[in-house]
Amino acid sequence: MINIFQLLEYFSSFIRIVLAVYFFLQMVTQLGASPMYLANLEYSNPKLKSLRNDVKENLRASRSHNENIQLTKLEFYVYTVSKSDNFFTIMARTGMNLDSLSSVNELASPQDIFPGQKILIPNMRGVYYNKEIQTNSDKERIAIAKEFKTLPEKLFFDESRSKWFVPGGDLQGREKMFFYGFGFAKPLLASVLSSGFGKRNDPFTRNETFHGGVDLAAPQGTPVFASADGEIIFRNKKGGYGNLIIIKHELGYETRYGHLSKFLVKMGTKVKKGDKIGEVGHTGRATGDHLHFEVRRFSKRQKPVFTGHL
Predict the structure, then answer these.
(1) C-alpha angle with apex 80: 293 to 121, nearest 5 degrees?
(2) How far is 76 from 78, CA to CA, in rounded Å?
(3) What is the pTM (predicted TM-score) of this model?
(4) Alpha-carbon distance 199 to 195, whole Å?
(5) Which of 54, 83, 156, 266 could make an S-S bridge to 165, C-beta 3.0–4.6 Å?
(6) Neighbours of 260 (CB within 10 A)
């Protein structure tokens, strides 16, 4: 007989599938009626040759301050990550750089690439401007061009994302810091990693499930610290999380702290990295005292990456 925990796991798996389909449909919509697909990253692949050539020519055009040297139209290829791929092999094979591949796909770290994932490969290097609210105006175009030291007419406004794409642009300092794992500190001073990010056997049902964070075992009452500067946007009970705190950070990031025994901050509080926000417990769906810690970017779960790495 199926118990309530199994039903919750089935429902959670269904929601993850729905969200994955939704994000891919959004991505395909962005590409237009006939998206281009890369079947593989073999150098003999004609589409890959064409992509690499476009990237090379557009890189030259984006670096030029000659108005007569034009960029091609911004286009994207869809590529399905294979088992032998990783972030850096894809980057090298397609002629991309770290900044372009991570910005276009809103990746939080190189570990966010996994087999079966569909990612976008643009036909030019560049990044999306990271300001939250952007408008398709000449004033904003000129201001962003000045910030990136390029010509205003080289920028593209992506209507599907409501963001400016800057050909030849690089990630700004804070974005790159987060990408390399220097944005988040460990939320506990001392702990044992009891469950990692990714597939695992559920401790209640023993079925294989996806674990969207990391579990850090520590005694009840152990202080929990804010992993980065931000604002408390949730402080309450929430299903299997038990007592949960959510902190909103810059650049679309949020962190979640679950199974707490005690809250030590109020809603709307601005916190700094290292501020004490709660204490470890086992509220909600937990087999023992631990902190469930998650990193999300634009609502998508990311593998937590710290300076010391878990």
Answers:
(1) 90
(2) 7
(3) 0.67
(4) 10
(5) 156
(6) 26
